[in-house]
Amino acid sequence: MFTVTDSAGAHLALLLRAKEAPEDTAVRIAPGRRGLTILVDEIRVDDHGYEYGNRVVLVLSSEVRERLSGKVLRCDHGDDGPHLVLQNLRTGEKPDNR
Predict the structure, then answer these.
(1) How many independent structural domains does the chain possess?
(2) Are 74 and 7 in contact (CB under 8 A)?
């Protein structure tokens, strides 16, 4: 299972608002040249969507969702601002809800 923390959902919602992204778009995690990348993209019928508030903020293809199984997307806040982080979960470990 892939999990998105509330803080990550809030950060994604802020990103979409800042880009003035239309309601039929969301942040997508997709394969890139060197691993995974994020982009704002149209929501597709076969996507797995993750909501924050009243909006879909993140979408994944089935392939990427399977690849991210056992991971949590969280938002860390450092000196240089917020960062999205993929956290690996070991069996029985609860996600850090940052």
Answers:
(1) 1
(2) yes
Residue with tokens 């924050």: 52
Does residue 20 sit within a domain? yes
Residue 98 in domain: no
- Whether 96 is covered by a domain: the verdict is no
Give the tens place of pLDDT for each residue, 35-60.
Answer: 999 999 999 999 999 999 999 999 99
Number of neighbours of residue 95 by Cβ within 10 angstroms: 14
Domain contains 97: no
CA angle 40/71/84 to nearest 5° reads 45
Q: Which residue in the block uniquely carries the two structure tokens 């991971």?
A: 71
